[in-house]
Design a protein that fits this description.
Elements (H helix, E strand, L loop, with lengths): L1 H30 E3 L24 H19 L7 H27 L1 E2 L2 E4 L1 H20 L6 H25 L8 H18 L5 H8 L7 H18 L11 H24 L7 H13 L10 H29 L9 H21 L3 H4 L3 H4 L1 H4 L5 H32 L22
Parallel strand pairs: 1-3
Antiparallel strand pairs: 2-3
Helix pairs in contact: 1-3, 2-3, 2-4, 2-8, 3-4, 3-5, 4-5, 4-6, 5-6, 5-16, 6-12, 6-16, 8-9, 8-10, 9-10, 9-11, 10-11, 10-12, 11-12, 12-16
């Protein structure tokens, strides 16, 4: 009986993958074309266009670093459950393979379309990787409780909503969020949390079984941390102004990473009984330091400000993990498997507040020629610095509302009409996974 159910599940997954790939092939054949080899990108004439290509000649290195960050960094972050470890990596690769294709279509309708066609290039691939990162963040909230079929269908619904939220924030509202504090970290975290709440398990024994699923050796945490340190500065600065100016986003992210990592050694021994800091905690600290710099990275934060932001974000994450996560689990019935609320949601909100403050202090004297890139509407005189700060702040509730509604609807659909296997069943590839010793 169990073998028949497993075979049926594999066939359903194979059928869904075949259908989704056939659908994308047809849509690509009808609408997608390569972008022009010379001249500015389709996006560049718009002053507040999403994911601008600041330096077209360096498009591929930026895409390569962003892709490696999404592929390897997030992939290893999802590999900490002992019962699903390598299977989680395989699932993240499956999700990423579909999300990149689907994001090119969804985002292309808003930013890269011309005369009924979607033109793709290195910069559109970077935008697709940003969208994929948000989807992988969301999947961290439900890891171990859903199967690959559910992951794919969640991606199918989340990607268009991500593109819609991104278009509203970056184009209609004209905010600056080059590294994705709002569009990637905040949206991905709270979308996943609302899906998790809608898919909550009614029986406490199932919840305890998942909580005690065990952990993989810290080698995955070490690898994930190394990839974060190597590639995240490039990921966060993939759409920022470069030219011959100093790379503020790269420097600010590095300063924030260093301060957040050091802060983990300060507060973690006080909050937890373990005397030695675990590699997974250092990994979370690196994530927090990068997430808080998503919006403020390319702004005039100064090295001092980047250190302070990273230090505060790490403490906020640790406090949230120690005191807020139990409340989410017991009172709000939100089971956050990978702790995305603490390492993405809270730092994303803090990064938005930091970016709002910096937007209100922006002046032409301080930014010089960068003002046109960072705050184009302020540079053109269409908006004051205070007005820009107000729009930056208003973007936060807009993102939270869209993420909460979208996640709730997605999770509710999965609860009322199960996708594929029974809920709570993780996926174990027979060649990748070994049974967990009892």
């Amino acid at each position: 009986m169990a073998e028949g159910t497993a075979a049926a599940s594999r066939l359903r997954l194979a059928g869904l993958c075949f259908f989704l790939q056939l659908l994308t092939i047809i849509l690509f054949a009808a609408f997608v074309r390569y972008g022009p080899e010379s001249g500015p990108g389709l996006c560049s004439p718009q002053s507040n266009c999403s994911r601008r290509d600041p330096e077209p000649g360096s498009g591929y290195p930026r895409f390569r670093d962003a892709h490696l960050q999404a592929l390897l960094g997030f992939g290893f972050l999802l590999a900490f459950l002992g019962r699903y470890g390598l299977g989680s990596v395989a699932t993240s690769l499956l999700v990423m393979a579909f999300a990149v294709q689907w994001a090119l279509l969804a985002q292309g309708l808003f930013y890269f379309s011309l005369k009924g066609k979607i033109y793709v290039g290195a910069q559109s691939m970077v935008s697709a990787d940003f969208c994929t990162a948000a989807v992988l963040i969301s999947s961290g909230a439900v890891l171990g409780r859903v199967n690959p079929i559910q992951m794919l269908l969640m991606t199918l619904l989340e990607v268009p909503l991500f593109a819609c939220n991104e278009f509203i924030l970056l184009s209609l509202m004209g905010i600056s969020d080059s590294g994705g504090s709002l569009t990637v970290h905040t949206f991905g975290a709270y979308f996943g949390l609302m899906v998790s709440r809608a898919l909550r398990q009614p029986r406490a024994d199932e919840q305890e079984e998942q909580q005690d699923a065990g952990r993989q050796p810290d080698v995955f945490a070490v690898l994930g941390t190394l990839y974060l340190w190597i590639f995240w500065p490039s990921f966060a600065s993939a759409t920022t102004a470069q030219d011959s100016a100093e790379p503020w986003a790269v420097l600010n992210v590095y300063f924030s990473l260093a301060a957040s990592t050091l802060a983990a050694f300060v507060l973690s021994p006080i909050l937890y009984e373990e005397g030695t800091l675990q590699a997974a905690q250092i990994q979370d600290a690196a994530l927090v330091g990068a997430a808080v710099m998503g919006m403020a990275g390319e702004m005039l934060l100064t090295p001092f400000g980047a250190l302070v932001a990273g230090f505060l974000a790490s403490h906020l994450s640790l406090l949230g993990s120690r005191f807020l996560s139990p409340i989410l689990r017991s009172r709000l019935k939100i089971q956050d498997t990978c702790g995305v609320h603490n390492v993405h949601g809270l730092p994303g909100v803090l990064g938005t507040l930091v970016g709002t403050l910096l937007a209100g202090l922006a002046t032409a004297d301080a930014y010089g020629g960068r003002l046109e890139r960072v705050f184009p509407l302020v540079a053109q005189g269409s908006r004051t610095a205070g007005g820009q700060a107000w729009w930056q702040l208003c973007a936060l509730p807009v993102t939270l509302i869209l993420a909460a509604l979208g996640g709730s609807l997605t999770g509710t659909r999965g609860r009322r009409r199960p996708w594929g296997e029974r809920r709570g069943a993780g996926w174990q590839h027979p060649r990748l996974m070994a049974p967990t010793p009892r």
